[in-house]
Each structure stands twice: as structure tokens, then as C-alpha cells.
Amino acid sequence: MRALRIIGRWLAAAMLIASTAPVQAQAQPEDQQQNAALRRLIRAAKNRPYAALSWHELKLAATNERQAQQLKDALAHSGRSLDDVSEQSMWVDAAAGHPEAIISFYDDNALNHPEDKTRLNTACWARAARGIDLENSISVCDLAIAADRKGYTLLFRGLAELQLGLNIEALRDFDEALGDKQFAAHPFLADAAFGRGIARIRLGDAEGHKDIRAATAANKNVVTNFTDIGITEELSD
């Protein structure tokens, strides 16, 4: 009798597992992506103390409130400086759809240190390269370019212009950035080429596909950089 009861309980458990398996299977891929992104972010927080956290990974993990808090806790115990923990935690909030604190942080830095031209550039970058507060992005990037006309700042304004549908203006900025000799060895060069390709394609110029191919050959992550800010159009020629 005892053996029959054990078998009965086993069969009931098996039936319960079978009945819930399809629902679990449907939710699993997204959960797996979020969990994997969280693990990578926590490792980066601890093992790369001077590196910013990946925006792509943050957008995967931080949309889950529980995981966002886990990541903030990991940052708090990572051994990073208090200032860096605060800044990266604000980026966690931004990825979760609350960018107000990080925008204020960079804007205040620029206002309080007018002698440092890079601060305005960072305020421009935060908006354009992360797709946040776009309504103010052009005016901030204009100020950054007026203070110090660098290839990378032109790139950032071009990114903002692409997101706002200002394709002619974006093409102009990407062209100038790519023509800047000091920008030629910059890590963001591929982004400028990719952005120019997008602008050209949107304006009906098939030569943009050459820019896209060159950019993706130079940096395999460039497509992700653009899809993360909503630039996802079909690129096959």
C-alpha cells in the first residue's frame, strides 16, 4: 500500500509538471536573457571597476524591478567609489525608464564646470547615444559642439538627429565627423559610418549600404548600438 501511495503521488506530480510546462517554456527565453544579462552586469560591476555598465545589458535586466535592485545592491558592494556607484545606479534607473536623475547629473556637471568642455559633450552623449530626453538633445549637443567641435560630438548630434528624423542634418554631421583626421582612429568611427549609411539610405542613396558594410566589418557590435536606441530599419541592399 505504501508503494502504491508513493507511485500515486509521483504520478500526480508528473501530471502537474506536464500541465504547467508549456507556460514555463513560453516565458523561459525572455527570463533566460534577463538573468544572463544580470549575471554579466554583476560580474562587470565587480571585476571592471572603472568601466561603465553595458547599456544593452542594462536594458535587458533593469526592466525587471527585482533584478534592477539586485544590480544596485551588487554595485553598492562592488568596491567602486561612492560617486561611481551613484552614477551607475542612475543608469540602472534610466534603463528602467526613469532617466531624470542621470540627465540632471550630467547637466549639473556641465553647468558647474564651464571650464571643462568635455562635460557638455557627456551631457550630449547621454541623450543621443542612449536615446533619452531627445527633445532637449539637439540644443545640448549644439552647445557641446560650439564649445569644442570634435568628431565624436558631431557623431552624437548625428545620432540624436537620426532618432528625430532629421536625416539631412544627420548626414551633414556624420560626413564632417568622418572627415575629421583626429577622429580617424577613434573607437566610435564605425558608429559614424553606420549612422551615415542609415541617413543615406533614408534619403534614397543606395551608397549607404557600403557605409553599413564597412561599419559592421569594423565593429560587430555597431548594429546593437543602433537597435538599442530604436534605429532598426531593414538594411539589406
Automatic annotation (TrEMBL):
Keywords: Signal. InterPro entries: TPR-like_helical_dom_sf. The keyword Signal applies. Residues 1-25 form the signal peptide. It comes from the Bacteria. This is Sel1 repeat-containing protein.
